[in-house]
């Protein structure tokens, strides 16, 4: 809308100037003057895309009719957009236009000669109609650039402050996990090792060895998590190198039997059923499927005692289905503490891969955890 108003203003002021400003009536017929003013107004409306047409129209109109409004607007937009080298060239062009206007004024004589050919008046016209608008455009551009740079700097500072706060929080969480969780798990491993060595009962020694192995695996996983928390965000998200991946392999479906054996050793009757033709899937999908079974079995340990549990893995044409279903507990064991966020985090993990997680209580007291993951 403002460019429409700008075009209308250039049209009206240009027509006013050439029709008889300062007692200098034009010898041209009115339709010609209207056409020139209309072309100038149209070029001013087009200045949002390019100001060069307005500068060309302004130069011709100034030399021919001493119509200065188009050249004034063009000079302002030249200051907004031109680089330093081109500004010098533009000023040279303005001087050439003033010189051509002075020559035409000498030829026509009269008031036109006074306005455009007398050195003092010609200099004033050049300064007021070309120099000052150009300077105003340069000032406005510098102000806008400074404001934009200030906004970018503030945005960068905000991002840096947010990153610093996140890094501090990650370091605090890592310290708490190391000082509390890692210490407690280390004590469990040590006591399990002592019990394995000192126990004269073979079944007790095997159970102690199993507890120690699970504890050491938990410590290894905890070290990985602490490393991610303490590293910068960019390093935390980088892929593992082949050497690192070989040293710390992430669990996949190939490790599922070992996970089930650990639950069986604790007295839970766990069965596994695979359906469909087994085939390689993305590592992220396999890890997520493993975590689904792991979390479901953890909940069985915590809430269902020694309830029989069935694990089903089905390979579909374009998805992997994981289902863990346990029967109602006949004699629930001690209720173990938990964070209450296991299934919430599991759902987020599945949904990040475009899958769905379904959890529901079953008739008879059992519970179902089922996930469908695109593969």
Summary of the model, kept short:
With 375 residues, the chain is an alpha+beta fold. The protein has helices at 2-20, 30-45, 52-65, 69-81, 84-108, 110-116, 119-198, 202-230, 233-236, 242-247, 256-265, 283-303, 342-352; strands at residues 270-275, 309-315, 319-326, 356-361, 367-374. Among the domains are: 2-117, no CATH class; 252-375, Histidine kinase-like ATPase, C-terminal domain (Heat Shock Protein 90), CATH 3.30.565.
Number of strands: 5
How many helix segments? Answer: 13
Overall pLDDT level: 79
| Low-confidence spans | 234-247
Strand order of the largest sheet: 1-2-3-5-4
Structural class, please? alpha+beta
Quote the CATH topology of one domain.
Heat Shock Protein 90
Order of helices and strands: HHHHHHHHHHHEHEEHEE
State the major sheet.
Answer: 5 strands, mixed
Gyration radius (Cα, Å) is: 41 Å
Helical content class: 55-70%
Distance between the termini: 53 Å
Kindly provide the name of the CATH class of one domain: Alpha Beta
CATH superfamily caption of one domain: Histidine kinase-like ATPase, C-terminal domain
Label the CATH architecture of one domain: 2-Layer Sandwich
How large a portion of the residues is in β-strands, by DSSP E? 5-15%
Q: What's the overall geometry?
A: rod-shaped
């Amino acid at each position: 809308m403002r460019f429409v108003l700008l075009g209308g203003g250039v049209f009206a002021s240009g027509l006013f100037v050439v029709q008889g400003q300062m007692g200098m009536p034009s010898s041209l017929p009115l339709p010609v003057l209207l056409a020139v003013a209309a072309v100038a107004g149209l070029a001013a409306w087009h200045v949002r895309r390019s100001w060069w047409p307005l500068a060309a129209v302004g130069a011709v109109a100034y030399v021919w009719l001493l119509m200065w409004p188009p050249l004034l607007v063009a000079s302002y937009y030249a200051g907004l957009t031109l680089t330093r080298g081109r500004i010098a060239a533009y000023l040279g062009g303005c001087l050439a236009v003033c010189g051509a206007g002075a020559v035409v004024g000498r030829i026509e004589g009269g008031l036109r000669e006074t306005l455009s050919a007398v050195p003092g008046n010609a200099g004033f016209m050049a300064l007021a109609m070309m120099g000052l608008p150009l300077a105003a455009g340069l000032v406005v551009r510098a102000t806008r650039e400074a404001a934009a740079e200030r906004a970018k700097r503030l945005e960068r500072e905000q991002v840096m402050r947010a990153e610093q706060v996140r890094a501090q929080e990650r370091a605090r969480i890592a310290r708490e996990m190391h000082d509390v969780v890692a210490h407690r798990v280390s004590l469990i491993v040590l006591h399990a090792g002592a019990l394995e060595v000192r126990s004269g009962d073979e079944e007790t020694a095997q159970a102690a060895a199993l507890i120690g192995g699970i504890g050491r695996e938990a410590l290894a996983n905890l070290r990985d998590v602490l490393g991610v928390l303490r590293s910068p965000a960019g390093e935390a998200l980088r892929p593992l190198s082949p050497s690192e991946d070989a040293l710390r392999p992430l669990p996949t479906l190939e490790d599922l039997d070992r996970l089930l054996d650990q639950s069986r050793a604790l007295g839970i009757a766990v069965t596994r059923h695979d359906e469909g033709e087994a085939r390689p899937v993305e590592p992220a999908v396999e890890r997520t499927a493993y975590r689904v079974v792991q979390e479901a079995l953890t909940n069985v340990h915590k809430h269902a005692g020694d309830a029989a549990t069935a694990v089903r893995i089905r390979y579909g044409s374009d998805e992997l289905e994981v289902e863990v279903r346990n029967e109602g507990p006949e004699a629930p064991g001690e209720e173990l503490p938990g964070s209450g966020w296991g299934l919430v985090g599991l759902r987020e993990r599945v949904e990040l891969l475009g899958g769905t997680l379904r959890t529901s209580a079953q008739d008879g007291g059992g519970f179902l955890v089922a996930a469908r993951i695109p593969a």
